[in-house]
Amino acid sequence: MASVVIFILASLLCFLPLYLKVGVRGSNQFPFPKDLDKLVDDSIIDSHNALRTSEGTEVTLDCRNNATKKVMKNFLQATYRWIHNGMHLKFDEDRVLNLTGRVVFLEAKAGDSGSYLCQIEYAPFLMKTVAAFSLLVIPNNILVQTYKYGARFCLQCNSDAIGHLYLYTSRNWIINDLYYALKKDISAKSVEVDCIDFALSKMSGDWTCVTTQEYTKKQWSTAFYRIIVDDEPPFTAKLAIFLKDNILHLIVLMVGIVLFVVSYIVAKKRGKFARGPDGSIENAPLVPEPKL
């Protein structure tokens, strides 16, 4: 038994230097140089990679710049990787090419829309984000989403990557490139869907999610929808919709009214003997206190 323990301890001591040399996730064995870190961050701040194209066209996301070239030169084993809407980008040799520092869409599709992060894995499991892109692909045959008047619907923007890299950014939905759909902007960092609680007929049209940086006015578009809202129904139909949507509230209200009426009738019957000859409470005869 003792020999087994000694063997295990000896093995650990042998492999410990190798473990420390290779490093683990979050290890300081491969620190990212401060000068490179500042160079990359400044490059991100100054950049504005917002692309818009039509379905079927060729488009390229190019991550190569002065900052990324220096990173690749400093870490010879470094590799590029791409994140699309929070997921690892899947490459298709027939349509999507993964070149060094570039992604080439030979035939862009609507599903390619969204936000992209270009990252460099400069050491095992250690990443540095070096660029961000937005891509909006307008489909040739647009799928129309139809909603009834007064319905609730939600849309996905996929702006969170932009929001995390660029400070003071918020998003909103522009209808027909004319006006904003939401009264209040939403933080671009949010990964949640954006919901409209009550659909109106004037909301019909093309919806584009636009992220805006407050002080630079830079904009990124990451999602597109075509929405059709049915015409406003007549009064009787709106009344039926109201009753349907508020049936529980109406039941509670009706029960409350019934209880109030019953309580009032009972109280009135009990109180009619406590009135005076003229029917007024003021002239009602005093009720003697019970003797103990």
UniProtKB/TrEMBL annotation:
PROSITE patterns: IG_LIKE (PS50835). The chain crosses the membrane at residues 247-267. Residues 1-26 form the signal peptide. Residues 33-134 form the Ig-like domain. InterPro entries: Ig-like_dom (IPR007110), Ig-like_dom_sf (IPR036179), Ig-like_fold (IPR013783). It comes from the Eukaryota. Keywords: Membrane, Signal, Transmembrane, Transmembrane helix. SUPFAM superfamilies: Immunoglobulin. This is Uncharacterized protein LOC111105792. The gene is LOC111105792.
